Amino acid sequence: PMEKTTVLITGCSSGIGLGLATRLAADAARRFKVFATMRDLAKGERLLERLGGCCPETLELLQLDVTDPRSLDAAAHRVQGQRLDVLVCNAGVGLMGPLETCSEQAMRRVFEVNLFGTIRTIQAFLPAMKRRRAGRIIVSSSIGGLQGLPFNSVYCASKFAVEGLCESLAIVLRPFNIHVTLVECGPVNTSFLENLQRTDPEGSEL
């Protein structure tokens, strides 16, 4: 039998992560084994419903919070011993509003997930790829990582940082036969807007 391509995806409870995990796990030729990760495993029901139930040969749900090093360690330990071919860093969060209405806590949250969450995830799984001298890392960026967008200054800043991170990594990982891909999405029909962090509607500036 053909050996499966093992893929771990962060942020699979909705949106692009959910769609990608569904598509790969439902592949008719069963070419993929997907570790679909999310912060809240209770939200995995949506993914299972799309697949018509459990698919143990092609899908495994894993709890993974990219802001929690212990959660990342546990997920990396679960995958340990299996060849991870593709790592998809997809977890992300937005923040929309005039800059002066954005709290420091909300801004830090955006960078904690979008930038440092991506860094932590890569750090957790990169050593095994380096030892094997093979792998692919795919990172969900945004058009907002290429140009600033009105009322998205903090989100864009986090994605600009992700772009610099990945462009730098791509160079040093090439000798290890590890390929880094940035996916710079435009508008996609997901629940991203509903999940945006909001500025305080009572704020005098707003």
From TrEMBL:
InterPro entries membership: NAD(P)-bd_dom_sf, Sc_DH/Rdtase_CS, SDR_fam
Keywords: Oxidoreductase
GO-annotated molecular function: estradiol 17-beta-dehydrogenase [NAD(P)+] activity
One Pfam match: adh_short
GO CC annotations, alphabetized: cytosol
GO terms for biological process, alphabetical: estrogen biosynthetic process
Keyword Oxidoreductase: yes
Protein name: DHB1 dehydrogenase
Species this chain originates from: Anseranas semipalmata (Magpie goose)
Underlying gene: Hsd17b1
